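Reader question, answered in our methods column.
A reader sent in the components of a multi-part assembly and asked whether the whole thing could be modeled at once rather than chain by chain. We filled in our standard form and ran it. Here is what they sent:
COMPLEX SIZE: two components
ENTRIES:
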Amino acid sequence: MANKKQYIFDNPKNVKRLLTVFYVLCALLLLLDFVIERNVYHPWENLWGFYPIYGFVGCVVLVFVAKWMRTFLMRPEDYYEKLEEARFQKDQQLTKGDNNVDA
Amino acid sequence: MWMLEIPPFVPFFIGAVIAAFTRGRLRGLVMVLIPVLSAIHLWTVPDGSHLQFAFLSYELIPYRVDKLSLMFGYVFHIAAFIAIIYALHVRDTVQQVAALMYAGSGLGAVFSGDLLSLFVFWELLAFTSVFLIWARRTQKAYTAGMRYLIIQVISGLLLLVGALFYAAENGTLAFGYIGLQGIAGWLIFIAFGIKCAFPFAHNWLTDAYPEATVTGTVFLSAFTSKVAVYSLARAYPGTELLIYIGAAMTCFPIFFAVIENDLRRVLAYSLINQVGFMVVGIGIGTALAINGAVSHAFNDVIFKGLLFMSMGAVLHMTGRINGSDLGGLYKTMPKTTILCIVGAASISAFPLFSGFVSKSMVMSAALENGHNWVWLMLLFASAGVFHHAGIKIPYFAFFAHDSGIRASDPPSNMLIAMFIAAALCVGIGVYPAALYSLLPYDTGYNPYDATHVLAQTQLLFFSALAFVWLNLKNLYPPELRSTNIDVEWTYRRVLPAVWQGTVAMSQQIYGVFSQSVNRVFTLTTNYLAHKNAKISGLLSDKHPAGSMVLWVVVILASYLLLTFIK
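And here is the structure of the entire assembly that came back:
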């Protein structure tokens, strides 16, 4: 049964609208740095845009490092199961073999 | 006042027995009533030791109540209540009984006043919870449960040996501050560390939780690791090593979480990340830091439960949990989507959600005590947790590309449970004073000052901006069907391989050895036989009995002949 109903984000215009609102909010938050008087514990917090830049750069670095980690960590989905199931089936065959007249 | 002497684990264990013999609505009613009645009872209990007796010259205190244990006692009741409602539709008696026993064991552990009682509940936690994994009844769940059980039992044994050493060193089994002195201190520390998923000992969690049943994982996420956090807070506050262990725990899992495909495993990694914040708080050990750790544990039980429930709902309704198979579910599961987003906002510590009011205490404590690098790591981890748990989970399950799956929202008991958890997340976030009044220390902390709110909102929005940018540029790593190797690789792949290799090699060596021994043996016997044959000549023929008779006959005949000669 095909579902032809149009949902809110099926319309690319809505996605665009959402993103625009998001960008505006980001810009506003950055500008608030000038307005709000901070009482800080640490000198780094006084740097302009410390939190936004740290958040953005941190996440980009996180994703790139994680992506790079895939090159040596990634294995097929059944990586462990292949070995474990092979062992399991071998065991099962053995027990079958004991009671099997053909064995 | 007889009620005072009933420790909270008793009603749960009684409930488990009743649940084993009842079915249907009656069982549901009993199961829902037990945490409610037990919580009301707990509310009336004053501080102090309520049950103690002597055992082999040691004093055992199976029921001790103070602010620290009460905090965990309350949240365990809330968690049990929510998870039981979530699991009301389950007809599997094994799961229902195991769940009640498991919740009871968790409560028993946090109210234990001595190390021996703690050990008993520590092991009960393992033996009851493993049935929530095995109840999935797949080969994968069976082997994962086995590994889980082995590691948990090792932790328990270390605790027992540590407790015996502790009793020998100090002449008491009382469970209070222990500290890293002597062999007992270290053994117990390692035992707690294993259950707390310290780095290199963390894989049981990411291995077993995603293999448990839909409802089982919700129970699992609440108790085991939080009992370990409680035990650390009681026995090792202010231990500097914990700060660095905790900081490592907040950071390394987020890398794995970003590339993991199984969304419940992503949550398991993020559980380790959240526990890391608590461990840092315990390590700092000031009143503010301990408050932060304990209240974060309280909130984490609820919001992590909510996230596991929402992913459980997805698994329950679609039968799938891999990010690569899901997407676009918001269309037909709008309620689950919204509830999941509430959980995601809470774990990401958005202002007005529960994570914010507790995590910020740990962060502030780290700064106040001059742990600048640790603070930077925690800040990075905060951005990272938003990235993988706050955005990745809801995005890949409910939005992203349309997978074409049109599953409806889950049964109403699941929705109600998620709604209660979500309401608590928002309630605590909006009105943190209620939570703060339960805390062990009074610090007068206020999370909602302009500096704090702005800093956290900026951090989170620009983390989200990074996600949007990477996604639009197609730089974000796609969800792939894959397994990522972790520390477990050593005991799931290397050790079996080494073991098989050793067995094969020893068999070969044995073969060669036995062959050569056999050959030498045959050669020697042949050689001796040959020599013997040469010496004995006529007398030792091939048929010694026959030839002997023959020769006896010959001798007797000669005698006979000799008699004739005379």
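What stands out: Chain A touches chain B through 55 residues (CB under 8 Å). Confidence is low (pLDDT under 50) at residues 94-103 of chain A.
Send us your own complexes using the same form.
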